[in-house]
Amino acid sequence: PGRTPPTPPTERAIYCCCCPFTAMLFWGATIPPKKKIEVEVASNETLSISNATLVVPGKLKKDAADIQHLLQCSSDGKSYVVCALRPKVNESVPLAVVLTAGTTFTFKGSSSYAISLVGHRVVDDNETNAGTDDDDEGNDEDVDEDEDEDVDDGKESNEGSGESEGDEEDGEDEEDKEDDEDEDDDDDDDEEEEEEEEKVNKNSKKRKVSPTSNSSEEQTAKVPKKKKIVKLRDGLKYRDLLEGKGRKAKKGDKLSVRYRGLLKSGITFDSNMPKGRPFRFQLGAGEVVKGWDLGLVGMAAGGRREVVIPPKLGYGQRGAGDKIPPNATLLFDIELLKIN
After folding, report:
1. Rg of the Cα trace of the chain?
2. Which residues sit opposite 71 in a β-bridge?
């Protein structure tokens, strides 16, 4: 009552517990494209703007992220840039703009998109609520008189009901005795449960199996054996690190693989492991180096093979660009994903 309603409709008052005459009003406003809005701050208010957001539609142009959209503020003939917004880059910017009491500011936004402003007003209600203090004091005196009458009536009612209170105390004593007996029974039950738990724990300890002499044999059995190295013609050799399942690859099959290629120095010159796009080729069709056409025969899907390719079956004396020097021996780690 007596307060001027706030200009924007999207406001709600929250009163501070330590300052009962100060209200914080949540404030919001939207600046349409190619338009301005005027914000008036009342004489008993302070406006704080805490955030500016660029309202971007669903579809954007390709170069939309390269265009800045300025939020400008003007007062008394002077204009200022508050912030710059860009789609997909910084569409929302925190602000710390405080507009003092009794001032008027004009905000201008983007020519393409709307800009939403959010903040709060701080309203001082000391003047509007000062006139109600005297009425509150008079009401307090009436309340005190009513409380005195209630106390006197309470004393008379207590004197007349002395006998009934005594009967109630006797009934309460009997209930307390019954509760004590129930608590004793519960304690006995808890003790019995604890004894049973102790017996179970003792039995479980007795059932623990002590280590036997076979543990050393099991450990030696777990050590993986080294796979056999298979030597082919012209110095080509391979070793299966993991054997696959299903039919084995043969000349003419289309294979899908992941691989990593290394030089003797350990430098990786090419790789699509671990999650790169699989490499597809036809085995034996000359689409890859000769070492691949010969060294991948017999693999099954899910298998993994280490292949050592001599220069004669690799890139030979010419090498391959800057990564593979001439006469280089190549080491490939190949995983066969699929056979078509």
Report:
1. 43
2. 83
